[in-house]
Amino acid sequence: MSTDRRKFLKHLGTSVLLTSASLTSLAAKEENEVRILRDEKRVTPNDKIRIATIGMGIMGFNDTNAALTVPGVELVAACDLYKGRLLHAKEKYGSSLFTTMDHREILERKDIDAVIIATSDNWHSQIAIDAMRKGKAVYSEKPMIHKISQGLEEIQVQKDTKMVFQVGSQRVSSIAYRKAKEMYESGAIGKINSIEASFNRQSALGAWQYTIPGDGNVQNVDWARFQANSSVKHDFDKNRFFRWRNYREYGTGVAGDLFVHLLSGIHFITGSKGPESIYSIGDLAYWKDGRNVPDVMSAVVRYGETKEHPAFQVTLRVNFISGEGDKTTTKIVGSEGVMDIGGEGEAFTIHQNKMPEAPGIGGWDSLFTYTESEQKALMDDYNKRWTKAQQDTPQFQAINYRAPEGYNASNDHFANFMESVRTGKPVVEDAVFGFRAAAPALACNDSYFENRLIHWDAENMKIV
User: Fold this and answer.
1) Residue 200 and residue 324 in contact, taking contact as beta carbons nearer than 8 Å
2) What predicted TM-score, i.e. pTM, was given to this entire model?
Protein backbone atom coordinates (compact mmCIF):
# COMPACT_ATOMS: atom_id res chain seq x y z
CA MET A 1 0.00 0.00 0.00
CA SER A 2 1.65 3.28 -1.08
CA THR A 3 2.37 6.15 1.30
CA ASP A 4 0.29 8.49 -0.87
CA ARG A 5 -2.70 6.18 -0.67
CA ARG A 6 -2.30 5.90 3.11
CA LYS A 7 -2.28 9.70 3.33
CA PHE A 8 -5.36 9.92 1.12
CA LEU A 9 -7.24 7.47 3.33
CA LYS A 10 -6.13 9.28 6.46
CA HIS A 11 -7.20 12.66 5.17
CA LEU A 12 -10.34 11.48 3.38
CA GLY A 13 -12.79 13.66 5.24
CA THR A 14 -16.15 15.30 4.76
CA SER A 15 -14.71 18.30 2.91
CA VAL A 16 -13.21 16.04 0.28
CA LEU A 17 -16.25 13.84 -0.10
CA LEU A 18 -18.76 16.64 -0.30
CA THR A 19 -16.99 18.33 -3.18
CA SER A 20 -16.30 15.16 -5.16
CA ALA A 21 -18.55 14.36 -8.07
CA SER A 22 -17.55 10.73 -7.82
CA LEU A 23 -15.76 8.98 -5.00
CA THR A 24 -16.06 5.72 -6.98
CA SER A 25 -14.24 3.00 -5.07
CA LEU A 26 -10.80 4.37 -4.12
CA ALA A 27 -11.38 4.48 -0.39
CA ALA A 28 -13.35 1.26 -0.52
CA LYS A 29 -10.49 -0.51 -2.28
CA GLU A 30 -8.09 0.78 0.35
CA GLU A 31 -10.26 -0.52 3.16
CA ASN A 32 -10.76 -3.81 1.37
CA GLU A 33 -6.99 -4.21 1.06
CA VAL A 34 -6.64 -3.70 4.81
CA ARG A 35 -9.25 -6.43 5.41
CA ILE A 36 -7.51 -8.84 3.05
CA LEU A 37 -4.14 -8.25 4.70
CA ARG A 38 -5.73 -8.82 8.09
CA ASP A 39 -7.38 -12.04 6.97
CA GLU A 40 -4.26 -13.33 5.25
CA LYS A 41 -2.05 -13.02 8.29
CA ARG A 42 -0.57 -16.30 9.45
CA VAL A 43 -3.01 -18.34 11.55
CA THR A 44 -1.49 -20.53 14.23
CA PRO A 45 -3.09 -23.79 15.41
CA ASN A 46 -4.26 -21.96 18.53
CA ASP A 47 -6.14 -19.50 16.33
CA LYS A 48 -8.16 -22.21 14.56
CA ILE A 49 -11.91 -21.93 14.98
CA ARG A 50 -13.94 -25.09 14.53
CA ILE A 51 -17.52 -24.41 13.52
CA ALA A 52 -20.76 -26.27 12.90
CA THR A 53 -23.77 -25.15 10.91
CA ILE A 54 -27.26 -25.95 12.15
CA GLY A 55 -29.71 -25.71 9.27
CA MET A 56 -28.23 -26.45 5.85
CA GLY A 57 -30.76 -24.64 3.67
CA ILE A 58 -30.04 -21.69 1.41
CA MET A 59 -28.62 -19.50 4.16
CA GLY A 60 -26.90 -22.43 5.85
CA PHE A 61 -24.76 -23.19 2.81
CA ASN A 62 -24.22 -19.51 1.99
CA ASP A 63 -23.22 -18.68 5.56
CA THR A 64 -20.92 -21.67 5.75
CA ASN A 65 -19.19 -20.66 2.53
CA ALA A 66 -18.77 -17.10 3.81
CA ALA A 67 -17.40 -18.32 7.14
CA LEU A 68 -14.86 -20.51 5.38
CA THR A 69 -13.42 -17.48 3.57
CA VAL A 70 -11.93 -16.49 6.94
CA PRO A 71 -8.49 -18.09 7.38
CA GLY A 72 -8.26 -20.62 10.18
CA VAL A 73 -11.94 -21.55 10.17
CA GLU A 74 -12.77 -25.24 9.82
CA LEU A 75 -16.20 -26.83 9.37
CA VAL A 76 -16.48 -30.00 11.44
CA ALA A 77 -20.21 -30.67 11.68
CA ALA A 78 -23.57 -29.95 10.06
CA CYS A 79 -27.15 -30.48 11.10
CA ASP A 80 -30.36 -30.50 9.09
CA LEU A 81 -33.76 -32.14 9.31
CA TYR A 82 -33.65 -33.34 5.69
CA LYS A 83 -31.26 -36.20 4.95
CA GLY A 84 -30.53 -35.02 1.42
CA ARG A 85 -28.91 -31.82 2.63
CA LEU A 86 -26.66 -33.74 4.99
CA LEU A 87 -25.54 -35.96 2.13
CA HIS A 88 -24.82 -32.89 0.02
CA ALA A 89 -22.87 -31.32 2.89
CA LYS A 90 -20.56 -34.34 2.81
CA GLU A 91 -20.31 -34.05 -0.96
CA LYS A 92 -19.30 -30.42 -0.69
CA TYR A 93 -17.21 -30.28 2.48
CA GLY A 94 -15.80 -33.79 2.72
CA SER A 95 -16.91 -37.27 3.71
CA SER A 96 -15.36 -36.89 7.18
CA LEU A 97 -17.86 -34.14 8.06
CA PHE A 98 -19.97 -35.12 11.09
CA THR A 99 -23.67 -34.83 10.26
CA THR A 100 -26.77 -35.23 12.38
CA MET A 101 -30.50 -34.49 12.38
CA ASP A 102 -30.37 -33.59 16.11
CA HIS A 103 -28.71 -30.25 16.85
CA ARG A 104 -28.19 -31.28 20.47
CA GLU A 105 -25.49 -33.72 19.35
CA ILE A 106 -23.54 -30.78 17.95
CA LEU A 107 -23.92 -28.73 21.11
CA GLU A 108 -22.53 -31.59 23.21
CA ARG A 109 -19.29 -31.76 21.19
CA LYS A 110 -16.32 -30.23 22.98
CA ASP A 111 -14.36 -29.64 19.77
CA ILE A 112 -16.81 -27.09 18.35
CA ASP A 113 -16.10 -23.44 19.14
CA ALA A 114 -18.93 -21.72 17.30
CA VAL A 115 -22.21 -22.53 15.62
CA ILE A 116 -24.04 -20.91 12.74
CA ILE A 117 -27.80 -21.04 13.27
CA ALA A 118 -29.57 -20.96 9.90
CA THR A 119 -32.70 -22.94 10.67
CA SER A 120 -36.30 -21.89 10.14
CA ASP A 121 -37.04 -18.80 12.22
CA ASN A 122 -38.99 -20.68 14.87
CA TRP A 123 -35.80 -22.39 16.09
CA HIS A 124 -33.38 -19.45 16.09
CA SER A 125 -33.84 -18.32 19.67
CA GLN A 126 -33.99 -21.67 21.45
CA ILE A 127 -30.97 -23.14 19.70
CA ALA A 128 -29.00 -19.92 20.30
CA ILE A 129 -29.81 -20.02 24.01
CA ASP A 130 -28.91 -23.71 24.26
CA ALA A 131 -25.68 -23.15 22.35
CA MET A 132 -24.52 -20.25 24.55
CA ARG A 133 -25.26 -22.27 27.66
CA LYS A 134 -23.10 -25.04 26.22
CA GLY A 135 -20.21 -22.62 25.76
CA LYS A 136 -20.52 -22.04 22.03
CA ALA A 137 -20.11 -18.74 20.23
CA VAL A 138 -23.21 -18.08 18.14
CA TYR A 139 -23.79 -16.56 14.73
CA SER A 140 -27.58 -16.37 14.46
CA GLU A 141 -29.34 -15.68 11.21
CA LYS A 142 -31.83 -12.85 11.30
CA PRO A 143 -34.31 -12.42 12.75
CA MET A 144 -32.76 -13.69 15.98
CA ILE A 145 -36.25 -14.38 17.32
CA HIS A 146 -39.55 -15.80 16.09
CA LYS A 147 -41.60 -13.89 18.66
CA ILE A 148 -40.93 -10.55 20.32
CA SER A 149 -41.36 -12.20 23.71
CA GLN A 150 -38.16 -14.22 23.16
CA GLY A 151 -35.79 -11.28 22.81
CA LEU A 152 -35.04 -10.22 26.38
CA GLU A 153 -34.34 -13.78 27.51
CA GLU A 154 -31.86 -14.29 24.70
CA ILE A 155 -30.13 -11.02 25.57
CA GLN A 156 -29.95 -12.04 29.23
CA VAL A 157 -28.48 -15.45 28.42
CA GLN A 158 -25.76 -13.78 26.36
CA LYS A 159 -24.97 -11.47 29.26
CA ASP A 160 -24.93 -14.34 31.75
CA THR A 161 -22.79 -16.68 29.65
CA LYS A 162 -20.63 -13.90 28.14
CA MET A 163 -20.49 -15.92 24.94
CA VAL A 164 -19.83 -14.19 21.63
CA PHE A 165 -23.16 -13.67 19.88
CA GLN A 166 -23.66 -11.97 16.53
CA VAL A 167 -26.77 -11.53 14.40
CA GLY A 168 -26.48 -12.14 10.67
CA SER A 169 -27.54 -8.87 9.06
CA GLN A 170 -24.47 -8.30 6.92
CA ARG A 171 -25.21 -4.66 6.12
CA VAL A 172 -23.83 -3.76 9.53
CA SER A 173 -20.38 -4.88 8.34
CA SER A 174 -20.59 -3.42 4.83
CA ILE A 175 -17.89 -0.90 3.95
CA ALA A 176 -20.45 1.01 1.89
CA TYR A 177 -22.80 1.27 4.86
CA ARG A 178 -19.93 2.41 7.08
CA LYS A 179 -19.11 5.15 4.57
CA ALA A 180 -22.82 6.05 4.32
CA LYS A 181 -22.92 6.37 8.11
CA GLU A 182 -19.89 8.66 8.02
CA MET A 183 -21.52 10.82 5.36
CA TYR A 184 -24.80 10.98 7.27
CA GLU A 185 -23.04 12.01 10.48
CA SER A 186 -21.08 14.69 8.59
CA GLY A 187 -24.37 16.42 7.77
CA ALA A 188 -24.22 15.68 4.05
CA ILE A 189 -28.02 15.57 3.73
CA GLY A 190 -28.91 18.03 6.47
CA LYS A 191 -31.44 17.13 9.14
CA ILE A 192 -33.09 13.77 8.52
CA ASN A 193 -36.89 13.72 8.38
CA SER A 194 -37.95 10.58 6.48
CA ILE A 195 -36.74 7.29 5.01
CA GLU A 196 -38.23 5.18 2.23
CA ALA A 197 -37.01 1.58 2.12
CA SER A 198 -38.24 -1.28 -0.02
CA PHE A 199 -37.68 -4.70 -1.52
CA ASN A 200 -39.34 -5.45 -4.87
CA ARG A 201 -39.34 -8.90 -6.45
CA GLN A 202 -41.00 -10.43 -9.47
CA SER A 203 -40.29 -14.15 -9.60
CA ALA A 204 -41.52 -17.39 -8.09
CA LEU A 205 -38.18 -18.04 -6.41
CA GLY A 206 -38.09 -14.49 -5.08
CA ALA A 207 -41.52 -15.17 -3.58
CA TRP A 208 -40.14 -18.27 -1.80
CA GLN A 209 -41.55 -20.95 -4.09
CA TYR A 210 -38.31 -22.86 -3.71
CA THR A 211 -37.55 -26.10 -5.55
CA ILE A 212 -38.65 -29.19 -3.62
CA PRO A 213 -36.56 -32.39 -3.95
CA GLY A 214 -38.14 -35.56 -5.29
CA ASP A 215 -37.23 -37.45 -2.11
CA GLY A 216 -38.53 -34.70 0.17
CA ASN A 217 -40.91 -37.01 2.00
CA VAL A 218 -41.68 -37.92 5.58
CA GLN A 219 -39.15 -40.79 5.47
CA ASN A 220 -36.31 -38.35 4.79
CA VAL A 221 -37.50 -35.42 6.92
CA ASP A 222 -37.69 -35.17 10.72
CA TRP A 223 -41.09 -33.55 10.59
CA ALA A 224 -41.83 -34.06 14.28
CA ARG A 225 -38.74 -32.13 15.35
CA PHE A 226 -39.35 -29.40 12.76
CA GLN A 227 -42.73 -28.50 14.27
CA ALA A 228 -42.00 -29.58 17.85
CA ASN A 229 -42.25 -26.03 19.19
CA SER A 230 -45.42 -25.12 17.24
CA SER A 231 -48.63 -24.82 19.22
CA VAL A 232 -50.63 -26.32 16.33
CA LYS A 233 -49.33 -29.52 14.76
CA HIS A 234 -49.92 -30.40 11.10
CA ASP A 235 -49.60 -33.59 9.10
CA PHE A 236 -46.45 -33.72 6.98
CA ASP A 237 -46.54 -31.10 4.24
CA LYS A 238 -43.51 -30.73 1.98
CA ASN A 239 -44.46 -27.13 1.21
CA ARG A 240 -44.45 -26.24 4.89
CA PHE A 241 -41.03 -27.82 5.32
CA PHE A 242 -39.16 -26.71 2.19
CA ARG A 243 -41.00 -23.38 1.83
CA TRP A 244 -41.34 -22.62 5.53
CA ARG A 245 -40.93 -18.85 5.02
CA ASN A 246 -44.52 -18.80 3.72
CA TYR A 247 -46.00 -19.90 7.05
CA ARG A 248 -46.31 -17.96 10.30
CA GLU A 249 -45.81 -21.12 12.34
CA TYR A 250 -42.17 -21.40 11.24
CA GLY A 251 -41.22 -18.11 9.57
CA THR A 252 -41.80 -14.41 10.10
CA GLY A 253 -43.07 -13.40 6.66
CA VAL A 254 -41.73 -10.55 4.59
CA ALA A 255 -41.41 -8.39 7.72
CA GLY A 256 -39.07 -10.76 9.57
CA ASP A 257 -37.18 -11.75 6.47
CA LEU A 258 -36.77 -8.40 4.70
CA PHE A 259 -37.99 -5.47 6.83
CA VAL A 260 -35.41 -6.55 9.40
CA HIS A 261 -32.60 -6.02 6.85
CA LEU A 262 -33.90 -2.54 6.07
CA LEU A 263 -34.24 -1.62 9.74
CA SER A 264 -30.79 -2.99 10.59
CA GLY A 265 -29.23 -0.73 7.97
CA ILE A 266 -31.32 2.26 9.05
CA HIS A 267 -30.44 1.82 12.73
CA PHE A 268 -26.75 1.39 11.90
CA ILE A 269 -26.55 4.60 9.86
CA THR A 270 -28.68 6.78 12.14
CA GLY A 271 -27.55 5.31 15.47
CA SER A 272 -31.19 4.79 16.39
CA LYS A 273 -32.36 2.38 19.08
CA GLY A 274 -35.70 2.00 17.35
CA PRO A 275 -39.11 3.49 16.66
CA GLU A 276 -41.91 4.45 18.98
CA SER A 277 -44.90 3.41 16.84
CA ILE A 278 -45.56 0.92 14.05
CA TYR A 279 -48.51 0.38 11.76
CA SER A 280 -48.70 -1.92 8.75
CA ILE A 281 -51.10 -3.16 6.10
CA GLY A 282 -50.76 -5.99 3.60
CA ASP A 283 -52.38 -8.31 1.10
CA LEU A 284 -52.00 -11.75 -0.39
CA ALA A 285 -52.19 -10.35 -3.90
CA TYR A 286 -50.71 -12.98 -6.18
CA TRP A 287 -48.89 -15.96 -4.65
CA LYS A 288 -52.00 -17.76 -3.38
CA ASP A 289 -50.25 -21.09 -2.89
CA GLY A 290 -51.42 -21.92 0.63
CA ARG A 291 -49.17 -19.43 2.41
CA ASN A 292 -50.62 -17.57 5.36
CA VAL A 293 -48.48 -14.42 5.18
CA PRO A 294 -48.92 -11.48 2.77
CA ASP A 295 -46.89 -11.09 -0.42
CA VAL A 296 -47.34 -7.29 -0.39
CA MET A 297 -46.80 -5.38 2.85
CA SER A 298 -46.33 -1.72 3.72
CA ALA A 299 -45.57 -0.16 7.08
CA VAL A 300 -45.29 3.34 8.51
CA VAL A 301 -42.86 3.49 11.39
CA ARG A 302 -42.31 6.64 13.47
CA TYR A 303 -39.06 7.43 15.24
CA GLY A 304 -39.32 10.05 17.95
CA GLU A 305 -36.65 12.64 18.72
CA THR A 306 -33.80 11.25 20.81
CA LYS A 307 -30.26 12.31 21.66
CA GLU A 308 -29.14 10.19 18.70
CA HIS A 309 -31.38 11.76 16.04
CA PRO A 310 -34.28 14.12 15.30
CA ALA A 311 -37.77 12.73 14.80
CA PHE A 312 -38.31 11.02 11.44
CA GLN A 313 -40.67 8.57 9.82
CA VAL A 314 -39.92 5.44 7.82
CA THR A 315 -42.04 3.79 5.17
CA LEU A 316 -41.21 0.13 4.58
CA ARG A 317 -42.50 -1.89 1.65
CA VAL A 318 -42.10 -5.37 0.22
CA ASN A 319 -43.80 -6.34 -3.03
CA PHE A 320 -43.38 -9.89 -4.32
CA ILE A 321 -45.23 -9.19 -7.57
CA SER A 322 -43.79 -5.83 -8.53
CA GLY A 323 -43.81 -4.77 -12.16
CA GLU A 324 -40.67 -2.82 -11.35
CA GLY A 325 -38.79 -6.13 -11.17
CA ASP A 326 -36.16 -7.00 -8.59
CA LYS A 327 -35.06 -3.79 -6.92
CA THR A 328 -34.00 -2.87 -3.41
CA THR A 329 -33.44 0.64 -2.14
CA THR A 330 -33.16 2.72 1.00
CA LYS A 331 -33.61 6.47 0.56
CA ILE A 332 -32.64 8.57 3.56
CA VAL A 333 -34.15 12.02 3.10
CA GLY A 334 -32.86 15.09 4.88
CA SER A 335 -33.53 18.79 4.69
CA GLU A 336 -30.61 19.33 2.29
CA GLY A 337 -30.26 16.09 0.37
CA VAL A 338 -31.09 12.45 -0.11
CA MET A 339 -28.89 9.40 0.28
CA ASP A 340 -29.95 6.56 -2.03
CA ILE A 341 -28.50 3.19 -1.04
CA GLY A 342 -29.31 0.68 -3.75
CA GLY A 343 -29.17 -3.09 -3.95
CA GLU A 344 -27.75 -4.87 -0.93
CA GLY A 345 -25.83 -1.80 0.12
CA GLU A 346 -22.77 -2.14 -2.09
CA ALA A 347 -23.09 1.47 -3.29
CA PHE A 348 -24.84 4.75 -2.60
CA THR A 349 -25.44 8.12 -4.20
CA ILE A 350 -26.04 11.45 -2.50
CA HIS A 351 -27.98 14.20 -4.25
CA GLN A 352 -27.84 17.50 -2.41
CA ASN A 353 -30.44 20.22 -2.71
CA LYS A 354 -30.59 23.42 -0.72
CA MET A 355 -33.19 26.14 -0.81
CA PRO A 356 -32.00 29.60 -1.85
CA GLU A 357 -31.73 32.14 0.93
CA ALA A 358 -34.45 34.25 -0.66
CA PRO A 359 -38.02 32.95 -0.27
CA GLY A 360 -38.89 33.21 -3.98
CA ILE A 361 -41.43 35.18 -5.99
CA GLY A 362 -43.31 34.53 -9.22
CA GLY A 363 -43.76 31.20 -10.94
CA TRP A 364 -46.37 29.07 -9.16
CA ASP A 365 -47.27 32.00 -6.99
CA SER A 366 -50.21 34.33 -6.47
CA LEU A 367 -48.12 37.25 -7.77
CA PHE A 368 -49.60 37.05 -11.30
CA THR A 369 -53.14 37.51 -9.94
CA TYR A 370 -52.42 41.06 -8.79
CA THR A 371 -52.56 44.26 -10.81
CA GLU A 372 -49.63 45.11 -13.06
CA SER A 373 -48.62 48.01 -10.83
CA GLU A 374 -48.76 45.86 -7.69
CA GLN A 375 -46.69 43.11 -9.35
CA LYS A 376 -44.02 45.65 -10.35
CA ALA A 377 -43.89 47.19 -6.87
CA LEU A 378 -43.53 43.77 -5.26
CA MET A 379 -40.81 42.67 -7.69
CA ASP A 380 -38.84 45.91 -7.22
CA ASP A 381 -38.98 45.54 -3.46
CA TYR A 382 -37.96 41.86 -3.66
CA ASN A 383 -34.93 42.60 -5.82
CA LYS A 384 -33.83 45.35 -3.46
CA ARG A 385 -34.01 43.03 -0.45
CA TRP A 386 -32.35 39.97 -2.03
CA THR A 387 -29.21 39.81 -4.19
CA LYS A 388 -29.04 37.51 -7.23
CA ALA A 389 -26.78 35.14 -5.31
CA GLN A 390 -29.37 34.94 -2.54
CA GLN A 391 -32.10 34.28 -5.09
CA ASP A 392 -30.26 31.51 -6.99
CA THR A 393 -30.72 27.88 -5.97
CA PRO A 394 -27.33 26.33 -5.01
CA GLN A 395 -26.10 23.64 -7.41
CA PHE A 396 -24.29 20.47 -6.35
CA GLN A 397 -22.75 17.52 -8.13
CA ALA A 398 -23.85 14.04 -7.10
CA ILE A 399 -21.61 12.07 -4.76
CA ASN A 400 -21.13 8.41 -5.66
CA TYR A 401 -19.58 5.63 -3.63
CA ARG A 402 -19.12 2.00 -4.66
CA ALA A 403 -17.51 -0.96 -2.98
CA PRO A 404 -14.78 -2.80 -4.93
CA GLU A 405 -15.82 -5.24 -7.65
CA GLY A 406 -16.60 -8.61 -6.11
CA TYR A 407 -16.86 -7.23 -2.58
CA ASN A 408 -19.07 -9.33 -0.30
CA ALA A 409 -20.37 -7.87 2.96
CA SER A 410 -21.23 -11.36 4.27
CA ASN A 411 -17.55 -12.30 4.18
CA ASP A 412 -16.74 -9.20 6.20
CA HIS A 413 -19.55 -9.95 8.64
CA PHE A 414 -18.10 -13.39 9.30
CA ALA A 415 -14.55 -12.01 9.48
CA ASN A 416 -15.75 -9.64 12.20
CA PHE A 417 -17.51 -12.47 14.03
CA MET A 418 -14.47 -14.74 13.94
CA GLU A 419 -12.23 -11.92 15.14
CA SER A 420 -14.53 -11.51 18.14
CA VAL A 421 -14.35 -15.26 18.80
CA ARG A 422 -10.55 -15.13 18.69
CA THR A 423 -9.96 -11.90 20.60
CA GLY A 424 -13.06 -11.25 22.65
CA LYS A 425 -13.54 -7.83 21.06
CA PRO A 426 -17.18 -6.66 20.81
CA VAL A 427 -19.14 -7.98 17.85
CA VAL A 428 -20.47 -5.58 15.23
CA GLU A 429 -24.09 -6.68 15.72
CA ASP A 430 -24.84 -7.91 19.21
CA ALA A 431 -28.05 -9.31 20.68
CA VAL A 432 -29.35 -5.90 21.74
CA PHE A 433 -28.85 -4.39 18.30
CA GLY A 434 -30.32 -7.49 16.66
CA PHE A 435 -33.39 -7.44 18.87
CA ARG A 436 -33.94 -3.71 18.37
CA ALA A 437 -34.12 -4.35 14.63
CA ALA A 438 -36.09 -7.60 14.82
CA ALA A 439 -38.77 -6.48 17.28
CA PRO A 440 -40.12 -3.55 15.19
CA ALA A 441 -40.06 -5.80 12.12
CA LEU A 442 -42.09 -8.47 13.90
CA ALA A 443 -44.36 -5.75 15.29
CA CYS A 444 -45.29 -5.05 11.66
CA ASN A 445 -46.71 -8.58 11.57
CA ASP A 446 -48.59 -8.02 14.81
CA SER A 447 -50.00 -4.75 13.47
CA TYR A 448 -51.11 -6.42 10.23
CA PHE A 449 -52.71 -9.51 11.76
CA GLU A 450 -54.28 -7.62 14.70
CA ASN A 451 -55.16 -4.47 12.70
CA ARG A 452 -53.79 -2.09 15.30
CA LEU A 453 -51.10 0.47 16.00
CA ILE A 454 -48.16 -0.95 17.97
CA HIS A 455 -46.37 1.26 20.50
CA TRP A 456 -42.76 0.30 21.17
CA ASP A 457 -40.41 1.35 23.96
CA ALA A 458 -37.07 1.23 22.14
CA GLU A 459 -34.96 2.05 25.17
CA ASN A 460 -36.37 -0.76 27.33
CA MET A 461 -37.20 -2.99 24.36
CA LYS A 462 -40.83 -3.76 25.12
CA ILE A 463 -44.31 -3.20 23.74
CA VAL A 464 -46.26 -0.52 25.61
Assistant:
1) yes
2) 0.91
